[in-house]
Amino acid sequence: MKRILPMAFMIATGAALAACNSTEEQTTAQEVQQEATAAAGQSGVQDDESQKNVVQVAASSPDHTTLVTAVKTAGLVDVLTNAGPFTVFAPTDEAFEQLPAGTVDGLLKPEKRSDLRNILQYHVYVGVLNADRFEDGQSLGQVNGGRVTMGVKDGKVTVNGANIVASIPTSNGVIHVIDKVLLPQ
Asked: Which positions carry the signal peptide feature in this UniProt record (predicted)?
């Protein structure tokens, strides 16, 4: 009986340690998964049922590939997938092509990231403003601290002279598609 008791104690202790180790490994795996999801930010949330946000709408547009590339390069994807609300003036690929040759490629370089962010933030207003709410001469404060001026004439709406050619509601705001890139002063 004396030999069985210490052996039973050793077996029980070993089983308890193994169970703790297994639980520890399981907790570690859960923590790693949670950290990976947190590192992705709001853009890492998988939701195929809700209305698309401004980034998802732009990413699904064949006319906004340059804008989406710029948003990714500037590190603004998570910001623009948050709840907002945002009014985004979204230049088309053709709008970017109107810039002097090499401008877009230059802005996409790592050393120009702050300039790119400044330009992109000049295209974003915090709040939802539908096209029918704009007034001629209305001034809007943009995310980068600059201001844009709205124009309304004969049913056409412009922002700093760029035509709003379409408006798309999203889950976290509205996108106004524009035909020129807005450049801060």
From this structure: 1-18
Q: HEC states along 78-136?
A: HHHHCCCCEEEEEECHHHHHCCCCCHHHHHCCHHHHHHHHHHHHCCEEECCCCHHHCCC
Task: Tell me the residue range of the domain where 24 lies.
Answer: 4-43
pLDDT single digits (tens) 99-156: 999 999 999 999 999 999 999 999 999 999 999 999 999 999 999 999 999 999 999 9
Question: What's the pTM?
Answer: 0.73
Determine, yes or no, domain membership for 149: yes
Q: Is residue 162 part of a domain?
A: yes
In this structure, is residue 79 part of a structural domain? yes
